[in-house]
């Protein structure tokens, strides 16, 4: 699970269960009133391997989750419309039953990694024909990899395109939970090949969208616009303003620390704790420190995963 903070935008990379628990926590902190934009990425559509991104879990906190999810933008790949892919999926289900005595559930999708491997083999076979007729050093993997740049593959699973630096051109959509719907509504379509976007549905937001980068009362909540004019401030007033600042802070909170642990089998098995110390405007030095921290965390996680193998 990863969290990235960019001013009033918080990007969440993780599983749906974790994300719902996180949104319930920020709802408790009064951070879903429109001052913050929460962006979550769904890397692929699969109920088993990723889960269902929705606020409804059939629990007593569904109503809170519904209100919290109104501040969420969901970024995911566009729905697959290729009819040939359905034919391939049916073939995989048939062979799974025939060769391995494994039966898929009626609405279950085949293993997405099997489909990805199938695509890789087909693309490599296509490029292998080109490689064998080109003056390419077969021991130079980097040169062979560059042959995939600026290429379009018309596969029976769909069209796969790579740009001039080898990045895949993927059609994406941006969705939002509107009108209490259990599933999100598409508000924006992004074309990977044409590099264009098309508005589909208007954005619904608790306050005028987009929210300002800087809160009305400032990052500290002690702006002169929000303080009494007589200049006499009690300790209680200052503490109240500080607590209120947390709810409307519109900065990257480099000092926010997230701890999580398995507490119980209750729906709130994961608790997110927000450290209120050191909330401040996002600066270039803070950005550099945050990037270094994220890189170090990624390297540590990678090394730990290798040691577990």
TrEMBL record:
Report the locations given in the UniProt record: Membrane
Where on the tree of life does the source sit, at the highest rank? Eukaryota
So where does this one cross the membrane?
233-256
Q: Name one GO biological process term.
A: signal transduction
Q: Where is the Receptor ligand binding region domain?
A: 9-173
Give the GO cellular component terms, alphabetically: membrane
Signal peptide (residue range): 1-21
Q: Quick check: keyword Membrane in the entry?
A: yes
Q: One MF term in GO for this entry?
A: signaling receptor activity
Q: Which InterPro entries match?
A: ANF_lig-bd_rcpt (IPR001828), ANP_Clearance_Receptor (IPR052612), Peripla_BP_I (IPR028082)
Its chief place of residence is membrane
Keywords, comma-separated and alphabetical: Membrane, Signal, Transmembrane, Transmembrane helix
Does the keyword Ribosomal protein belong to this entry? no
Q: Which PANTHER family match?
A: NATRIURETIC PEPTIDE RECEPTOR 3-RELATED, RECEPTOR LIGAND BINDING REGION DOMAIN-CONTAINING PROTEIN
What's the name of the protein? Answer: Receptor ligand binding region domain-containing protein
Q: Which gene encodes it?
A: RvY_16487
């Amino acid at each position: 699970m990863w969290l990235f903070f960019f001013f009033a935008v918080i990007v969440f990379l993780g599983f749906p269960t974790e994300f719902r628990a996180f949104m319930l926590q920020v709802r408790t902190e009064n951070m879903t009133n429109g001052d913050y934009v929460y962006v979550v990425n769904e890397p692929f559509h699969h109920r088993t391997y990723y889960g269902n991104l929705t606020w409804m879990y059939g629990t007593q906190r569904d109503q809170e989750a519904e209100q919290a999810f109104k501040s969420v933008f969901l970024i995911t790949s566009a729905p697959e419309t290729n009819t040939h892919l359905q034919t391939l999926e049916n073939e995989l289900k048939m062979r799974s039953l025939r060769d391995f005595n494994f039966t898929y559930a009626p609405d279950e999708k085949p293993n997405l990694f099997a489909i990805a491997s199938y695509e890789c083999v087909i693309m490599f076979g296509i490029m292998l024909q080109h490689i064998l007729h080109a003056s390419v050093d077969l021991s130079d993997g980097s040169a062979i990899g560059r042959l995939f740049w600026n290429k379009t593959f018309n596969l029976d699973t769909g069209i796969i395109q790579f740009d001039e630096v080898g990045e895949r051109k993927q059609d994406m959509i941006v969705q939002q939970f509107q009108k209490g719907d259990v599933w999100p509504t598409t508000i924006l379509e992004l074309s990977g090949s044409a590099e264009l976007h098309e508005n589909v549905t208007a954005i619904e937001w608790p306050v005028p969208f987009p929210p300002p980068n800087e809160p009305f009362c400032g990052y500290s909540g002690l702006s002169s616009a929000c303080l009494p004019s007589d200049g006499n401030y009690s300790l209680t007033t200052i503490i109240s303003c500080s607590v209120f600042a947390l709810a409307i802070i519109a900065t990257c909170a480099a000092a926010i620390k997230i701890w999580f642990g398995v507490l119980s089998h209750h729906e709130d098995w994961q608790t997110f704790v927000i450290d209120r110390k050191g909330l401040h405007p996002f600066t270039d030095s803070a950005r550099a420190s945050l990037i270094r921290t994220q890189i170090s965390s990624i390297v540590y996680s990678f090394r730990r995963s290798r040691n577990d193998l």
